[in-house]
Sequence to fold (257 residues):
Amino acid sequence: MGSGECRSNDYGAAAYWDARYSSPSSGGGAFFDWYQKYPALRPLLRARLPTSSRILMLGCGNSLLSESMVKDGYEEVVNVDISSVVIEQMREKHVDIPQLTYFQMDVRDMSFFGDETFDCVLDKGTLDAMMCGDDAPHGASKMLAEVARLLRPSGIYMLITYGAPKERVPLLYQAGCHRKIELHIMTTPKYQLKWSNSVPLPQPIMEEVALSMDGQLPPDYVLKDPESHFIYVCQTSDAANGANCVVAGEGKTVTSK
Ligand SMILES: C[S@@+](CC[C@H](N)C(=O)[O-])C[C@H]1O[C@@H](n2cnc3c(N)ncnc32)[C@H](O)[C@@H]1O
Fold:
């Protein structure tokens, strides 16, 4: 996935991910991070999430992000993924790290967890995978309603994606689960490498950019790396989390239990 395109509808299917994680030729059994790695994300994560936060990692895959966060002091990262293959691999690899737990789960139904039980939900590439599936955008809005239900008041949903604001902001606000969205734009590792000897960099590695409610960037803003990644820091609705979320296509409001 990248540059606003789904390369495969299969990204939304458990069977696709099971096959991918089973095969060494497609990275099964190894570690792989989509988009960005922890060192690049660290300044924002450390600024916004205290290390005592209870964090839920959506669609963890075989990313090193959760492990790196724990090595950096984070006390609890709960990981879920639809692929039982990758969950088994990651559980085995991290058996000696009690701060990391792994559950096979579909993010559209996380009823295993109680309401308002996480301080932060992190998503690097999972909403993107869902938006490629046959169930999009219905599945994505079900996931967002679940995210809002699981977050404590003032909790944060941090979405790291290739999806530009005009595609993602309407989805995030449409679900009605968030009252405030802050945007950070981050150049790709490829771009960072290309310009690593330039002083100053043509664009900072990460910068906060003003965002309108309908997903417009400032008119004079120029994206120097066209493949940039977008990080949306979303604050949940007031009071009863999840109470205002509408699942697209069902017209129904999800209420907290
Ligand atoms: C693009 S990968 C991102 C993996 C990892 N977060 C990273 O940054 O490297 C998307 C992940 O989402 C998982 N996934 C896709 N649909 C899912 C669903 N409905 N529920 C839970 N996980 C899902 C896939 O198994 C895959 O591991």
Observations:
- Residues 9-254 form a domain with the Rossmann fold fold (CATH 3.40.50.150).
- The pocket of S-adenosylmethionine is lined by residues 12, 17, 33-34, 59-61, 63, 80-83, 86, 106-108, 124-126, 129-130 (CB under 6 Å).
- The first strand starts at residue 54 and ends at 58.
